[in-house]
Design goal:
The structure holds two protein chains of two kinds.
Chain A: H1 32-68, E1 70-75, H2 83-96, E2 100-105, H3 108-119, E3 132-138, H4 146-153, E4 159-162, H5 165-207, H6 209-217, H7 222-262, H8 265-275, H9 281-314
Antiparallel strand pairs in A: 1-3, 1-4, 2-3
Chain B: E1 14-22, E2 28-37, E3 42-46, H1 53-60, E4 68-73, E5 76-77, H2 83-90, E6 93-97, H3 108-118, H4 123-136, H5 152-164, E7 170-174, H6 182-197, E8 201-205, H7 209-214, E9 219-223, E10 226-230
Helix pairs in contact in B: 3-4, 3-5, 5-6
Classes of the chains: A alpha+beta, B alpha/beta.
Chain lengths: 315, 231
């Protein structure tokens, strides 16, 4: 047998610099930029959808609250009844009802103006008696005994109470439908994100098959290997999510700014009435920012499950 | 310094009984293999290309299960082991490949330290051991180099260091000298012989006759899927 010439004794060693060890799964091997961009887009869409849902819900609550704080008493002209007297009685009854802040009648001119969309402008309506309206402002709508007011008004001929309940119901149904649709879209976006991560993970595993094999040969457990890939995908998901989340918040700021500056004052006021001036508020922004760790965690969990499945199939 | 393998090793054997191996529904690659390998021994595994050397090494590495027969390692029937036990057993087995199979994005030091890293050992603990081993295999000056910058011989020595850093009881080598010149081949086999002196059981697959003639180790000859051990 040949003699060995290898020197076994070593007096000194030169340890490498104390820098942190490189990750076992190289960053560039995870279809990095493409997946990060995809996650950023998905997060942006999730954020915009969530923001839209928050806006609609907030506006619906505001609409409903505004409408709910006001009820209307209608006094129809009845032969033999004195309209002005009935109006005064109705106002007195309304103001005497607990929870009512104030009540005032619309002037004849205002009442006639309300009919203009149906009858046209410039008509002389003095010859006919038109119904008169009394606007009643409520404090807390829940504290008002509307049935008491309704009973009291029954003593006035031609008087009826309009609580706008049907309108509020319709409004709430519409807002609920939009919120539900938004959440459905959000679910689909999340599902699409999961599928994209699954495909990206499978691609990454295939392109890193050599690393997986070597890790197996040196005794790495599936759990260890999955953890290495999960860490990489978590970082990727977080970066992509942050990019998309910040983009979505900026989008709402820009839209709010643009709606205020581009639309004419009147239109802007109407938009503001409808959408609350696109103001997400702190809770809306928090909601969008909360999407970022959710997307990152989702990416990490999805990749871990995919990697473990891949490993159990191949090992 | 590299310490001799655990004395407990001497009570352990590799034992194949009527082992057969086929891939899927294909023909049997290995047929009726029955042999015992004593701990602390050194065997050359020889045979022509396609004779099943790599398949046998994969059986020994526990990355394949036999189609029939019994494989016992470290006094345990590997067919009855669950995934965790197999994994634990695999950590007692080192492997060196002809193509080195170093991770290209890791430095020499990081490649060699990999088996300890996957076991969860902190770098502060294994740093000096890895450095010492790299010095021993002559790569003390190349610790921070990426594999792309290493010569074939340096790569193979790094691969050997990676295989032995976890102090395996068995070291398998699949044509480890296939990509280096004859002189370096001799030096590498001497390195394996040094490791063997420290108590590691070694099975080295090769078909290079000069190597076989240069060392007086017993041979396991694979022909047509059957094995004959001489010496």
């Amino acid at each position: 047998m040949a003699e060995t010439t290898i020197e076994v004794t070593v007096e000194t060693t030169r340890a490498p610099s104390q820098k942190r060890s490189a990750p076992i799964v190289p960053e560039r091997s995870v279809a990095g930029r493409t997946l990060m961009l995809l996650i950023a887009i998905m997060t942006f869409l999730s954020g915009v959808t969530l923001g839209g849902v928050v806006l609609v819900q907030k506006s619906a609550i505001a609409w409903s609250s505004d409408v709910g704080r006001e009820i209307t008493i209608q006094i129809r002209p009845v032969e033999g009844e004195v309209m002005e007297s009935n109006i005064r009685t109705a106002i007195a009854l309304a103001e005497a009802t607990p929870g009512v802040v104030s009540a005032h009648a619309l002037s004849l001119a205002d009442s006639e103006k309300l009919l203009e969309p149906w009858l046209g402008a410039g008509l002389d309506l003095s010859a006919i008696e038109i119904p008169r309206l009394i606007v009643v402002e409520l404090g807390d709508p829940h504290d008002v005994d509307l049935s008491l007011l309704e009973r009291d008004l029954a003593n006035i001929k031609g008087a009826s109470l309009e609580t706008h309940a049907a309108w509020r119901q319709q409004l709430n149904t519409m807002a609920g439908t939009i919120v539900f649709s938004g959440l459905l879209v959000l679910t689909l976006i999340v599902l699409a994100t999961v599928l994209a991560v699954v495909f990206a993970t499978r691609g990454t595993m295939a392109s890193n098959r050599e690393i997986v094999d070597v890790l197996h040969f040196i005794g790495a457990s599936n759990s260890f290997i999955a953890g290495e890939f999960q860490g990489r995908f978590l970082a990727l998901g977080f970066r992509g999510g942050l990019l998309g989340g910040v983009g979505a918040v900026l989008f709402f700021f820009l839209v709010a700014g643009a709606a205020g500056s581009i639309a004419p004052d009147a239109a802007s006021a109407q938009l503001g009435f409808l959408f609350g001036r696109f103001s997400l508020g702190l809770d809306g922004i928090t909601g969008i920012i909360a999407v970022v760790p959710v997307i990152a965690a989702l990416t990490a969990i999805t990749s871990r499950l995919t990697v473990r499945r891949f490993l159990s199939q191949t090992s | 310094m590299i310490a001799p393998a655990d004395s407990e090793t001497h009570a352990r054997v590799i034992e194949f009984t009527n082992v057969g191996l086929r891939y899927g529904h294909g023909p049997e690659i290995l047929k009726d293999l029955s042999f015992r390998i004593q701990p602390g021994s050194f065997h050359f595994l020889t045979g022509p290309s396609g004779s099943g050397k790599t398949s046998l090494l994969r059986l020994l590495l526990l990355s394949l299960k036999p189609s029939r027969g019994t494989v016992r390692m470290f006094d345990r029937d590997v067919g009855n082991l669950d995934q965790d036990a197999l994994l634990d057993m695999r950590r007692h087995i080192g492997i060196v490949f002809q193509e080195f199979r170093l991770l290209e994005h890791l430095t020499t030091f990081e490649n060699v330290a990999l088996p300890l890293r996957v076991r969860g050992e902190p770098e502060s603990v294994y740093r000096s051991n890895v450095s010492e081993l790299l010095e021993w295999v002559g790569l003390g000056e190349r610790m921070e180099a990426l594999p792309a910058l290493l010569s074939g011989g340096e790569k193979q020595r790094a691969a050997i260091a990676r295989a032995v850093i976890g102090r395996p009881d068995i070291l398998l080598a699949d044509e480890p000298t296939g990509n280096v010149d004859p002189e370096l081949s001799l030096r590498l086999v001497r390195l394996f012989a040094e490791l063997n002196k420290l108590g590691t059981t070694i099975i080295l697959a090769t078909h290079e006759l000069p190597l076989l003639d240069a060392f007086d180790f017993p041979r396991m000859a694979l022909t047509d899927g059957r094995v004959v051990i001489d010496g």
